[in-house]
Design brief:
CATH superfamily of one domain: Immunoglobulins
CATH architecture of one domain: Sandwich
Order of helices and strands: HHEEEEEEEE
Oligomer: single chain
CATH topology of one domain: Immunoglobulin-like
Shape: elongated
Strand content: 35-45%
Number of strands: 8
């Protein structure tokens, strides 16, 4: 009878230990699926100045790291981005320049968006067509 009384707590402890061991570490972080175009917003490819503003909206995910490259050089690195924000980067005014934004979420999603910026020329007048000058009432 004494042996049974001693064995019963030991068996209960062994079963509890096995249940805890099976539980294991938590799995991946639960986050929504996000797309690069939802997270990153870059303006059109025509430059009107020397700067470009990148808008970031993680849409419920947490970005472990965000990197911005201008012309192949890293100009910005952010970590732990969990809310909307923006970053303004300087872009060379000569020629075309590639701006690339990359990010990794805590859940392991990789995001990538790139755009080539350059000077946009004003529209050329059509030969033989007179430009509109002035305006007002008739």
């Amino acid at each position: 009878m004494r042996r049974t009384a001693l064995l019963l707590p030991l068996i209960a402890l062994g079963a509890t230990g096995a249940a805890i061991a099976q539980d294991g570490p938590p799995s991946r972080v639960a986050e929504p699926d996000v797309r690069s175009r939802e997270v990153f917003r870059l303006p059109g490819a025509c430059l009107t100045g020397e700067r470009v503003t990148l808008r970031i909206d993680p849409s419920g995910a947490t970005l472990a790291s965000v990197r911005v490259h201008v012309g192949g050089m890293e100009v910005l690195r952010l970590t732990g981005v969990h809310g909307p924000g923006s970053a303004t980067v300087r872009v060379p005014t000569r020629g075309n320049t590639r701006v690339t934004a990359t990010a990794d979420t805590l859940g392991g999603q990789a995001l990538y968006l790139t755009r080539v910026f350059g000077r946009c020329e004003p529209p050329r007048p059509v030969p033989g067509e007179r430009p509109v000058i002035g305006g007002g009432e008739d």
